[in-house]
Design brief:
single chain; two-stranded antiparallel sheet; 2 strands; about 65% helix; about 5% strand
């Protein structure tokens, strides 16, 4: 990649990181059994990968978490650190962006939910409520969904990647009893449908903005779309 393009990618990634850092400040839905809340970024962060690609999307998400904390690295054990650095959302962004890649790369994305399912079931509490992890078959199914449902299924798959990784990290780092996981089941589909819809709307909004800006800069012979990797369901 040429130096100028790297610079442009870095600026664009930083802009998305700032936007996501703002979205991280707004808490919208409580996480059952933890005392924490899902931020509005759950409707925005994963879609970044669908606009700037699977390499820079996750970087923007992690950078946004660091921006929000003024670049103070959170304390805690390794798994706690991964959760606090935004790994669940970063992998959701990776998943969304990877859906624009070849079949082999898309197939590799099935590794994330499969590992999450096994990690959940291997935990003593997770073993009691193993069926909770069946939600994470959705990102796998989404990869092979029909063309006409592709964009919504990918958005839904992305939010369940976030859910899968986040749930496993919470399971291993917090003392969440089996009863709390059972109580969460009815809420999971409601919240993930909401987040999936939010991701979809974010994607369309960002895509529209990029296209319109590209048209405005066309006269200056600047091809803005060259610096983005916009997810296009029709290509798959």
């Amino acid at each position: 990649m040429k130096k100028g393009k790297w610079l442009a990618k870095g600026i664009i990634t930083s802009i998305f990181a700032i936007l996501n850092a703002v979205a991280l400040k707004f808490k919208i839905i409580p996480i059952i059994g933890t005392g924490n809340f899902f931020p509005a970024a759950n409707c925005f962060g994963p879609s970044i990968g669908g606009i700037i690609g699977p390499k820079f999307g996750p970087i923007a998400v992690i950078l946004s978490v660091l921006l929000k904390s003024n670049f103070k690295i959170p304390e805690g054990a390794f798994l706690v650190l991964l959760r606090r650095l935004g790994l669940p959302m970063a992998l959701a962004s990776l998943y969304f962006g990877a859906m624009n890649s070849n079949k082999k790369t898309r197939f590799l994305m099935t590794v994330i939910p499969i590992v999450a399912i096994f990690a959940f079931i291997l935990h003593p509490v997770g073993k009691e409520v193993w069926y909770f992890s069946m939600f994470w078959l959705i990102p796998i199914i989404a990869i092979f969904s029909p063309q006409k449902f592709r964009i919504f299924s990918v958005a839904l798959g992305a939010t369940f990647i976030d859910h899968a990784v986040g749930s496993v990290l919470y399971l291993y780092t917090m003392n969440i009893p089996a009863g709390a996981w059972i109580l969460a089941i009815p809420q999971v589909m409601r919240e993930r449908l909401s987040f999936g819809t939010g991701i979809l709307l974010s994607y369309f909004l960002l895509k529209t903005l990029v296209i319109q800006l590209d048209k405005l800069l066309e006269k200056a012979k600047i091809n803005l779309k060259d610096f983005f990797e916009i997810f296009e369901p029709a290509r798959l």
